[in-house]
Amino acid sequence: MGGSLAGLLAAHVLAGHADRVTVVERDRFPDGAKPRPGVPQGRHPHVLLQGGQTALESLLPGFLAELREAGAPRVGMPADMVLWQSGRWFRRVPASTHIYTGSRAQLEELVRRRVLANPVISVREGTDVVGFLGDATRVRGVLVRDRSGDTRAESRPLAADLVVDASGSGTKAPQWLAAIGAERPREETIDTGLAYASRVYRGTNGALDGETRGYYAYPDPEQVHAGGALPLEDGSHLVIVSGLRGDEPPTGDDEFVTYAKRLPHPPLHRWLAEAEPLSPAFGHRRTANIRRRHDLPGRPAGFLATGDALCTFNPIYGQGMAVAAMSAVALRDALADRRRTPTTRRVQQALLAASRLAWDISAGADRKMPGAVGTAVDGGPADQVAGWYLSRVQERAPGDPVVGRAFRAVLTLSEPITALFAPPVARAVLFGPPAPTPTEPPAAPEEPGALAQ
Ligand SMILES: Cc1cc2nc3c(=O)[nH]c(=O)nc-3n(C[C@H](O)[C@H](O)[C@H](O)COP(=O)(O)OP(=O)(O)OC[C@H]3O[C@@H](n4cnc5c(N)ncnc54)[C@H](O)[C@@H]3O)c2cc1C
């Protein structure tokens, strides 16, 4: 169910184990790399983190070279960006990680082209899943309906040995499970009410054309606005501003630019005031963290959830696509493990495990944001200790290259959270004061060798 990133990558893995994999997708896929209605978030920045790059490359060898050839910018962090967090500018020491910042539509199209070339996989485009077949013990397929426009069209059964829900954060699977008598997943939620607005601009003052590829200011409990400009494949920049419930960014022409003044420093506003808009501004307000616990006992066999349908993150941390790819790797590994029968529950547990680090980062940060609501807002005492340690990490990451490297490795999902507790990192975090940081936005990268300082 769903032919976006999570669905395509799950289909790719399952094609190695099934006679036939059918992807049911409500949209008709566009010709080429264009936005489509089923993925409205595609108009907003979509960075591909290191953990997602590794996973995609392992699933589709050669994928990153294809992405680069298609022009997707590969941006070194922190060297290539002007970054601000927790009241500090990051030193622009040599990059310890890279992100891809090209458009979401381009990335999805490249994945789609690779995956759908497999003859085992077929797609039913323009088709809605509208319910499940089966009973409390087993999902046996789905009910589908053509989106031909005829609302009286009958739904038809499509039997399957395994149904995978990759229909995104708005999934109806919990209701459909209940309708066949199966148990719904328990939902954990944390919602900060964060809202986005994004718009494409072409810079006119040259500030983002050379060594500086973009800006980004992260939000925190004291400074709840975020904003940034990230390069796209055609040389333009996708600009995002965000704020919390009650102070959502506007999508009107002038108001969008003025909103950037809420950031605690002027570079983004200054750049925007001179830049040429190339698109309207698009807003997005559904940004809650939602985790659906399909892994608990008593769930029906023959059903798995993956991607955003399993675990949706506050998009400000840029994790969802990476987790979709990492989940496909987890699916591949769970099915290939000859020591254990891949029961539905075991595989679902492996899928959930693939999203755990991203959830800990996103939920951990959002619990501290003012006005956060939801069933999982209250963390236990262990979360409070972790929160105290992580805020010291955040204070030190901008100025201390060793802490910064570990921080980025974890945040980009390429190393486990334990990397933040490695002895040199822990020493700096527990015993040292924060290292000095630039007083002004650094205009150029530091020379190689800075990491040794
Ligand atoms: C504003 C915003 C910004 C984001 N930024 C980033 C970022 O910087 N980096 C990052 O990694 N991630 C980001 N994400 C998350 C990312 O978009 C998702 O995690 C990613 O697309 C994987 O999602 P998915 O495939 O599970 O679901 P989706 O991409 O949401 O796709 C769901 C698919 O299911 C189809 N569908 C839905 N219902 C049905 C149905 N009943 N029948 C048939 N088809 C159906 C839809 O048409 C769609 O194709 C962002 C998300 C948002 C909202």
UniProtKB/TrEMBL annotation:
Residue ranges annotated for the FAD-binding domain, each copy included: 2-337
Start and end residues of each stretch annotated as Disordered: 432-453
Highest taxon, organism lineage: Bacteria
Pfam families hit by this protein: FAD_binding_3
Biased composition (Pro residues): 433-445
One GO molecular-function entry: FAD binding
InterPro entries per UniProt: FAD-bd, FAD/NAD-bd_sf
PANTHER family: THIAMINE THIAZOLE SYNTHASE
Protein name per UniProt: FAD dependent oxidoreductase
Organism: Streptomyces sviceus (strain ATCC 29083 / DSM 924 / JCM 4929 / NBRC 13980 / NCIMB 11184 / NRRL 5439 / UC 5370)
